[in-house]
Amino acid sequence: MNKWPAMIDGDHIKRVLNCLDKAYGTELVCYLKHETPWQLLIAVILSAQCTDERVNIVTKDLFVKYDTLQKFADADLKELEKDIHSIGFYHNKAKNIIACAKRLIEVYGGEVPRSLEDLTSLAGVGRKTANVIRGNVYNDPSIVVDTHVKRISKKLGFTNEEEPVKVEKDLMQVIPKDHWILINIHLITLGRSFCKARKTDCENCFLKEECYSRRNENV
Ligand code: SF4
Q1: For the segment 11-49, what is each residue's pLDDT rounded down to a tens digit?
Q2: Which of 86, 115, 136 is the last residue of a domain?
Q3: Which pTM was predicted?
Q4: Is 177 an active-site residue?
């Protein structure tokens, strides 16, 4: 971890996590609707550069039409593109979903694998997606660095990095393991309420006393 403000010590982190637990609870909620691990995997692939809300609208019908992994593996590319066209990058996403479904069936017997290595061997699955699966499906401690986590972690003084992998490494050093899955859920919720990308509502934010950014306006 790079040198970072002295205020970021174990006690500070604990106070921030306590505030988040108190405000948002400790339940591991998932914002992407799904009933099976492979549905979650497909929903996460679809969610790149797209809101969870839009993905949930699309998957509501998609998972009825393609109700088995085999149906995704056998899907016609053009038809699947049409089915997901309201989501950005639908051409690549459709291609990846078909390839991913095929590999899941051929190599993993239709199961979603657990390890980072196996998960990232699937088409359309990067480290972030793999960590979503590890946390949500297998409850393996893993930190998902999405746009909210990256932005707000910096504001709270947890990191001063920009690259997601480096942010993840910093967070792994300062956040206790029992909060690795939760921190993503909490920071997404914070990023959709008080700490929005366009405008923050620091005055009303329950973290205002602890927030590094609030004390240092250039962050
Ligand atoms: S005090 Fe402001 S910058 Fe800090 S977490 Fe809250 S909304 Fe975000």
Answers
A1: 889 999 999 999 999 999 999 999 999 999 999 999 999
A2: 136
A3: 0.90
A4: no
Tell me how far apart the 2 most distant CA atoms of the chain are, in Å: 56
| CATH number of 125's domain | 1.10.340.30
Is 1 part of a structural domain of the chain?
no
The encoded tokens of residue 126 equal: 């990067």
Residue 93 belongs to what domain range? 37-136
Query: Is 3 among the domain residues?
Result: no
Q: Find the DSSP H helices in 25-163.
A: 37-46, 52-65, 69-73, 77-83, 90-108, 116-119, 127-136, 147-155
**Is the minimum distance from the CB of 205 to ligand 1 under 6 angstroms?**
yes
Return the best residue to mutate from 7, 13, 152 for the ligand 1 pocket (most ligand atoms within 8 A of CB).
152
Q: Classify residue 57: in a domain, yes or no.
A: yes
